[in-house]
Amino acid sequence: MNQDINIKKARTNCFRQSKVPGEFMLQMRVPGGFLDAAYLSVIEHIAKTWGDGNFHFGTRQTFDITGIPYGNIPAVNAYLEQYIREVDEQLCRVDLDTVSQEPQPWDPEGGYPTIGARNITACIGNYHCICANCNTFELARKIEPIIFPSHYHIKINIAGCPNDCNKAHLCDFGIIGVAKMTYHPERCIGCGACVRACEKGSTRVLSLNENTGKIEKDACCCIGCGECVRACPASAWTRQETKFYRVILGGRTGRQTPRTGKMFLNWATEEVVLSALRNWQKFSAWVMDYKPEYLHGGHLIDRAGYKKFKELILEGVALNPECLVAEDIFWQETEYRSNFNVKPMSLHHTAGPQ
């Protein structure tokens, strides 16, 4: 039976077109990529009832359920309503004080209302990882009601430490958990373990003073990774209680102009990060004259210019005393047409040994 298929409408509803005509893939949001295992039964039910029985762990940590016929989308959305209400409303919208913003009203009865703000991805963070400086999925859940739902596109990745396992440098708005360290010289035994750890795995800012037997630090280049804390056997290094973040801006993949993001904020508190993100939709609307297009954040920053972006995104944001803001940013993109002056290699067959 033939039917009209509105691909654009389905895509906005978070159903991606398949190479098989008439089939779609549902992308279920999982803010921060962390979820109660009980919800796996929901994924199984949708996949086996309306899909082809399979699902994919999406690159943005969504549950991607494949092989859903277009005609099954209304039934999937009806079943999905409870999941959305529990995951998006209960997990991400219950503690309004943490985001200082009323949740944007939307009814999940018809499924997801937009694909604009992509699922916020995160590494496991300090819920499990010994390297991490922050709880990444808790931060993701605080960000979720700020950016979603929205037709303005943004990709946000959160990494628990400067190892950046979650590729904060390759998205529109990358957030990295960093820590400021306190040195306790009275505990230091002068073993140099922290110096070796910093030398091997970080920015080599520590040195052992042979006269005093104590550690000296070039604080200007410390990236807040916490390797010194992990390495010290005497707890001479400890993380300060305040959580800090580094924000990376304008990174992206893609065929034409991929690039690594650059540092925008350093040593910012959680409230500063959330406050800046509260201005994201306003900035996006200004750039596109209140007419959303399918353009991600890095491209919008390019349109506005960094100076204008900084002005709008930090409007009304009270920076903490430690926070540093990039004066300017100069991105370096990969150019495919101008870097090479080599003629294509001609291919020909040669005769083999007779």
UniProtKB/TrEMBL annotation:
Q: Which InterPro entries match?
A: 4Fe4S_Fe-S-bd, 4Fe4S_Fe_S_CS, NiRdtase/SiRdtase_haem-b_fer, Nit/Sulf_reduc_fer-like_dom_sf, NO2/SO3_Rdtase_4Fe4S_dom, NO2/SO3_Rdtase_4Fe4S_prot, NO2/SO3_Rdtase_4Fe4S_sf, NO2/SO3_Rdtase_FeS/sirohaem_BS
Q: Name one Pfam family in it.
A: NIR_SIR_ferr
Arranged from A to Z, the UniProt key words for this protein are: 4Fe-4S, Heme, Iron, Iron-sulfur, Metal-binding, Oxidoreductase
Q: Where is the 4Fe-4S ferredoxin-type domain?
A: 179-208, 213-242
> Does the UniProt entry include the keyword Thylakoid?
no
Q: Describe the family membership recorded for this protein in Swiss-Prot or TrEMBL.
A: Belongs to the nitrite and sulfite reductase 4Fe-4S domain family.
NCBIfam families found in the cross-reference section: sulfite_red_C
Q: Note the PANTHER family from the entry.
A: ANAEROBIC SULFITE REDUCTASE SUBUNIT C, SULFITE REDUCTASE [NADPH] SUBUNIT BETA-RELATED
Q: What is this protein called?
A: Sulfite reductase subunit C
